[in-house]
Amino acid sequence: MGFLFKTLFFSLLLLFSHEANADFNATSSATGKLAGSCNIFRGKWVFDASYPLYDFSTCPFIEDEFNCGKYKRPDNMYLKYRWQPFSCNLPRFNGLTFLKKWRGKKIMFVGDSLSLNMWQSLSCMIHSWIPKAKTTLIRREGFSEIVFLDYGMKLLLYRTPYLVDLESQKVGGVLKLDSIRNGDAWKGMDVLIFNSWHWWTHTGRSKPWDYMEEGGKLYKDMNRLIAYYKGLTTWARWINRYIDPSKTQVFFQGISPTHYEGKDWSEPSKSCNGETQPFSGLKYPAATPLPAVVINKVLRRIKKPVHLLDITLLSQYRKDAHPTYYSLHKGLDCSHWCLPGLPDTWNELLYAALIG
């Protein structure tokens, strides 16, 4: 089996590499339709004194792992950048417009801690428009819900880092690459925003599974890109089977980059620690992440409409926007994002897609 997996890996790697440019050109064309004729995912970061969109001290929904202001980050320029597409303007986020349009509806984020990052961001963006609104908040393991009571709108979060099932069996934790039983919790939503990749790279003690399973066979491990491709393919089958496009809009959040290695922006001695400005070059030096190419290949084969929030490149520029050491966690964090901060832009892009 080892030889088979290696052969498959190099075949997929060659295929992904050769088709990366073509795939992302196709993605740009498809996702550009979210905002009419403009590709809202290609642009630049510009200074805007009116940002941020809310204050960390007045939003009740920010967790300490993202609350850089609470943990006394000394600089604040990272809060003052707005994403400007090259050939159009994004609509300014309006929380009241959002609530009125989605009155009585359910919007669910499904994924890992990057979904949590984006869910909390949107909650704060809405709250800043109606700070005295009546809300309820439910938080329990694997599930969170904020209800804006006067509008009957629910913002939900379903935590599942792999999208496919992770089960406890006699042999230990098993990541089932061809099973999504948990998907029952996603049914009946008006909007679904999926995300997955962050946990597929984990090894050692941070890896929550002991085996992967596919077709009833257990594997101690396999190349993670291949496993990711298999898992997303299972997710795609779930979308094709259970999603009614007339009732549910589906988005994929895209790959959120990390900034642990400064070589990605041509400064190999650095990390995100101490970075205070976005990358300002015309072309980000690091290549398109292969998991982003995998996502695009899977999305192109889904029969139901799924819109890619193509956040990867614009987020690669934001080496300055991570918590670093300014959060609840003691270690260096170049994976998640401060709030207020970059995920607010992700939600502005979502807003453009949902509102027009």
Automatic annotation (TrEMBL):
Domain Trichome birefringence-like N-terminal: 37-89
Subcellular location: Membrane
Leader sequence residues: 1-22
UniProt keyword terms in alphabetical order: Membrane, Signal, Signal-anchor, Transmembrane, Transmembrane helix
Chain segments annotated as coiled-coil in the UniProt record: none
Membrane topology reported for the UniProt record: Single-pass membrane protein
Pfam name, any one: PMR5N
GO cellular component, one term: membrane
Trichome birefringence-like C-terminal domain sequence ranges: 90-352
Family indicated by similarity: Belongs to the PC-esterase family. TBL subfamily.
Protein name: Protein trichome birefringence-like 39
Organism: Forsythia ovata
